[in-house]
Amino acid sequence: LLGRPVFFSNHRSKLKDILVQDVTNTLHLINPDGKIIWTQKVNGPLLGEINEVDIYRNGKRQMAFTTKNTLYVLDRNGKNVGPFPIAFKDPITQPLAVFDYDKNRKYRFLVTQGRDVYMYDASGKKVKGFAFKKTNSKIVLPPQHLQLGTKDYIAIAEENGTLNLLSRKGKPRITVAKKFAFSEIPIAKEGSKFVVITKDNKKESI
């Protein structure tokens, strides 16, 4: 096996199936009794977690994820959901981020490549209203969607310590002057504040 097993919801049984990837980059979906339901080869190791989505908004789940050069969406039978997969010439450098702003299953898929972030809709098209320009240094965490009160924030952390807090359209919502030594722990929220856990395990509040 390559990486750890993850659970995937089965809308028929209401139980969790198990998804694993082996060292040949083949995915295996296994039911709770240990039977392999299907196998499907992809073109590289998975980056980060599997994201469960419901693109058709009918209760049936799909799995969205990236490898080094490809954005995949597979249905629960292991088949590609058109127009995916989408191949990229340059390497993808962070796990896929999936946003569902209003909990209405109108998904946004965010792909990170070095200092660039690209946003796609569930039809595989770039979201035209997302106007974020590239960062000044490498992005070190997957983009995050956080809500405080009635406002949405997209958090993008950079290698140089900059924390970008953006609107849905990718424009700066808050300018954070302080720099942070980001760890691998995602940005969180606590009450009316954002929280960063630094590499030396200090808690910084914004």
Give the secondary structure arrangement, pairings included:
Layout: E1 6-9, E2 16-21, E3 26-30, E4 36-41, E5 47-53, E6 62-66, E7 70-75, E8 86-87, E9 97-99, E10 108-113, E11 116-121, E12 144-148, E13 151-157, E14 163-166, E15 172-175, E16 188-190, E17 193-197, E18 203-205
Antiparallel strand pairs: 1-2, 2-3, 3-4, 5-6, 6-7, 7-8, 9-10, 10-11, 12-13, 13-14, 14-15, 16-17, 17-18
Question: Can you walk through the features of this model?
Answer:
It is a single chain. The protein is mostly beta strands. The chain is built from no helices and 18 strands. It has strands at 6-9, 16-21, 26-30, 36-41, 47-53, 62-66, 70-75, 86-87, 97-99, 108-113, 116-121, 144-148, 151-157, 163-166, 172-175, 188-190, 193-197, 203-205. A hairpin with a 2-residue loop joins strand 12 and strand 13 (151-157).
Computed over alpha carbons, the radius of gyration is: 18 Å
The CA-CA distance between the termini, in Å, is 40 Å
* Helix/strand structural class: mainly beta
**Helical fraction:** under 10%
Compressed to H and E, one letter per element, the order equals: EEEEEEEEEEEEEEEEEE
Strand content bin: 35-45%
Note the total helix count: 0
Work out the number of β strands: 18
Mean pLDDT: 96
Q: What is the topology, as strand order, of the major beta sheet?
A: 1-2-3-4
Instruction: List low-confidence stretches.
Output: none
Shape: globular
Q: In this structure, how is the largest beta sheet organized?
A: 4 strands, antiparallel
